[in-house]
Design brief:
There is one protein chain. The chain has 246 residues and is of the alpha/beta class. Helix content is 23%, strand content 23%. The N and C termini lie far apart (45 Å).
């Protein structure tokens, strides 16, 4: 019986992989990967490594999550080192917890390898610090894509009214609704927002605006997309360092 390494691939820039993730990919017998992991990472694998693509995007799940869970278990019975390569961090809206629980219930060995989350990396590459002295002493990371099985939203919009920095992942298709919800609970419509597409990659794009006007500015952006809400967005004008250097 082998071991499954639930491994964060980082936010996109291959150089933001951890040393441990890099080493595991090189020695993996099988790699189960999703669409958010930089495909160039697979080139680091050894000859003969088995690749299993389970990539999914909103509305198009190549392989259902329950099947992914079982694939990982079956591969652990066949190989010594199985890498489950997940974009960002496996425990930040990556469903890594579900996969780990399935392996636990099956009695399979597993290990969690954290990765840099796009929730902090994409804003950093856009010149936006998620915290800033005298401006933002906290930040909240929220999913923009809740489970379709939940009839009632689990998101507590009211608690976001006074949060310094809000970070939404996977919510591009609900951008207008999210902005509307924030305004309804008391966020100033003029609150700055930055929408970041393909963060940390050579194709990164960042559009800024306010809660009341951003929706009309972001046509044509491609996923993955995340967005940052708060006064820290205004620092981009001084701190943007990446997009003009590619």
């Amino acid at each position: 019986m082998g071991k499954v390494y639930l491994t964060g691939a980082g936010p996109g820039d291959i150089e933001l992989m951890t040393i441990k993730a890099y080493r595991l990919v090189q020695c993996a017998d099988a790699i189960v990967y999703d669409r958010l992991a930089n495909p160039a990472i697979l080139d680091l694998a050894s000859k003969g490594c088995e690749f299993v693509n389970v990539g999914k995007e909103d509305g198009n799940h190549l392989v259902p999550q329950e099947e992914i869970n079982e694939i990982l278990y079956q591969l652990s019975q066949k190989y010594e080192c199985v890498v489950r390569l997940k974009g960002g961090d496996p425990f930040v809206f990556g469903r890594g917890g579900e996969e780990a629980l399935h392996l636990y219930e099956k009695g399979a060995k597993f290990e969690i390898v954290p990765g840099i989350s796009s929730s902090i990396a994409a804003p950093a590459y856009a010149g936006i610090p998620v915290t800033q002295r005298n401006m933002a002493v906290s930040f909240k990371v929220v999913t923009g894509h809740e489970s379709a099985h939940k009839k009632v939203s689990q998101i507590d919009w009211e608690c976001m009214k006074n949060e310094n920095t809000l970070i939404f992942l996977m919510g591009f298709h609900k951008l207008k609704q999210i902005c509307s919800n924030l305004i309804k609970v008391g966020k100033d419509p003029a609150t700055p927002i930055a929408v970041i597409s393909k963060g940390t990659t050579k194709d990164q794009k960042c559009i800024t605006g306010t809660l009341e006007d951003i929706y009309g500015k972001v046509g044509g952006l491609e996923s993955p997309v995340m967005f940052v809400v708060g006064e820290v967005v205004n620092l981009r004008e001084q701190l943007q360092w990446f997009e003009g250097t590619k």
